């Protein structure tokens, strides 16, 4: 299933993988299947998905975090096994609740898979990475459901397509042994029609424009300094980092210039005032604004991972709200674990969830920092007021792994859900401009130094997902599970 996600993005593999899981959990003839057996099957599926798909966690802990290799490997394996509990729980409930009837079973499977992903997305601060819906960015026809139902709605449709594909195969394999009078029961045409309707509807929805351009297009420059993670925080490299970003900003003029997360590798009060003045002068010279990532210290032991703007619109600031456990804050009882790693600035304070968009270059900009754009419902809190989405990241922590490409794919889903363009400025990649339809308009090669320039438009209006968030999908999933419980009680002796 990992190949369904970026960088390969073979989105149809997700349907085959989920269909295979549905088949392994048993057909309506497998009445003796026990929930524990189903949980073990799905846990194995989940373990394979996460161990292969988020193996970059080991890179961040060992290669760049300095943790002993054996401890980092063990921590990565335990984390991936913990994530596999969610599909295991869904499978156990599926086996317990499923009754006769192929359509009921397919709907129940899709509902439980989606609810498990929703639970994984918020439990203990959440880890929604590799949610099945992320594999369905364009050109997948299921991408059309994103503005309507969000990534969880896309997951639901993806799991349903997989289950129906499994049913098609089962019927074909069973046709030879079935009597002619039962042709309708065994005919593959019915689930094929269901698949066709789901895919065709998604394809047609991709042509719907939920938002409209607002204001004049603005020029942007997204800077990628390509500062090696192992060098970034060394004091002797501080001046070079400042010089790199100043030169990139000077040589690539734009109305809105965006630097990555912690582009200035120090606390704000440690950055020379004349350097900040020089950045402000560059921005004002173009009647625009410059946004950069920097850590901000306030009082005793209050540190914020922030984005600060200078320029024609005055100084504005956004503080990261959703912090990464072990990377940006230490969960209670895990100080011993963090003592084995050497991760700078790993104990931040969360910003206020009620921060307004920043007014930059005539647009209302919703800023999110690194991992925050993984959480769709948190991104839409700034909408519909915001006209542009901006993500600043430093994925150098994960080296040349799957993480940068997967992160860009997640950003594409946020653009689809919100009907807003997404601008990504990263330290080492993937720096990109993503259009409202989820397509990448332009991207810099990873591990190169440069600036991505282009013209972008703000958008106004609200998609259905912006208005309702995840609750329609969660409500539908719970309703399907409740119906399955009711039907199970009716059919049990």
From TrEMBL:
GO BP terms, alphabetized: lipoprotein biosynthetic process
Protein name: Apolipoprotein N-acyltransferase
Functional summary from the UniProt entry: Catalyzes the phospholipid dependent N-acylation of the N-terminal cysteine of apolipoprotein, the last step in lipoprotein maturation.
Membrane topology designation: Multi-pass membrane protein
GO cellular component, as recorded: plasma membrane
Segments forming domain CN hydrolase: 223-458
Transmembrane segments: 6-26, 38-59, 71-95, 107-130, 142-165, 186-205
InterPro entries for this protein: Apolipo_AcylTrfase (IPR004563), C-N_Hydrolase (IPR003010), C-N_Hydrolase_sf (IPR036526), LNT_N (IPR045378)
Name of the top EC class for this enzyme: transferase
GO MF entries: N-acyltransferase activity
Pathway(s) where this gene product acts: Protein modification; lipoprotein biosynthesis (N-acyl transfer)
HAMAP family for this protein: Lnt
CDD domains, per the entry: ALP_N-acyl_transferase
């Amino acid at each position: 299933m990992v190949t369904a996600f970026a960088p390969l993005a073979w989105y149809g593999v997700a349907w085959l993988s989920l269909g295979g899981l549905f088949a392994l959990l048993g057909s309506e003839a497998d009445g003796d299947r026990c929930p524990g057996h189903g949980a073990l099957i799905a846990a194995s599926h989940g373990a394979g998905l996460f161990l292969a798909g988020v193996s970059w966690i080991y890179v961040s802990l060992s290669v760049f975090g300095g943790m002993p290799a054996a401890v980092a490997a063990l921590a990565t394996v335990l984390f991936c096994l913990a994530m596999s509990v969610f599909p295991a729980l869904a499978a156990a409930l599926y086996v317990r609740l499923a009754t006769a009837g192929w359509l009921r079973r397919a709907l129940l499977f899709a509902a439980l898979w989606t609810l498990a992903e929703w639970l994984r997305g918020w439990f203990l601060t959440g880890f929604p990475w590799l949610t099945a819906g992320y594999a369905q960015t364009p050109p997948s026809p299921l991408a059309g459901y994103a503005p309507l139902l969000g990534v969880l709605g896309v997951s639901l449709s993806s799991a349903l397509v997989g289950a129906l594909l499994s049913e098609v195969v089962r019927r074909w394999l069973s046709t030879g042994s079935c009597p002619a009078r039962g042709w309708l029961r065994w005919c593959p045409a019915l689930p094929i029609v269901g698949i066709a309707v789901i895919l065709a509807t998604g394809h047609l929805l991709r042509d719907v424009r939920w938002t409209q351009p607002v204001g004049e297009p603005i020029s942007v420059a997204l800077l990628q300094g390509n500062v090696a993670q192992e060098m970034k925080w060394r004091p002797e490299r501080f001046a070079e980092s400042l010089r790199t970003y100043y030169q990139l900003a000077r040589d690539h003029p734009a109305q809105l210039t965006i630097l990555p997360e912690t582009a200035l590798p120090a606390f704000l009060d440690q950055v020379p005032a004349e350097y900040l003045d020089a950045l402000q002068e560059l921005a004002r010279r173009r009647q625009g604004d410059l946004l950069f990532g920097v850590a901000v210290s306030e009082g005793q032991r209050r540190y914020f991972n922030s984005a600060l703007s200078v320029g024609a619109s005055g100084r504005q600031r956004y503080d990261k709200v959703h912090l990464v456990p072990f990377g940006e804050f230490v969960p209670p009882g895990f100080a011993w674990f963090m003592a084995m790693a050497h991760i700078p600035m790993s104990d931040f304070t969360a910003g206020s969830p009620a921060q307004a968009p920043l007014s930059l270059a005539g647009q209302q900009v919703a800023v999110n920092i690194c991992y925050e754009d993984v959480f769709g419902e948190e991104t839409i809190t700034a909408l519909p007021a915001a006209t542009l989405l901006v993500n600043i990241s430093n994925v150098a922590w994960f080296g040349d792994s799957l993480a940068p490409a997967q992160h860009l794919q997640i950003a594409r889903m946020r653009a689809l859900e919100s009907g807003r363009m997404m601008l990504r400025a990263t330290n080492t990649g993937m720096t990109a401009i993503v259009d409202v339809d989820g397509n990448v308009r332009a991207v810099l090669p990873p591990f190169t130094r440069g600036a991505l320039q282009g013209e972008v438009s703000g958008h106004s209006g609200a998609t259905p997902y912006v208005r309702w968030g995840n609750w329609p999908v969660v409500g539908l999933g719970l309703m399907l599970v409740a119906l399955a419980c009711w039907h199970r009680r009716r059919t049990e002796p």
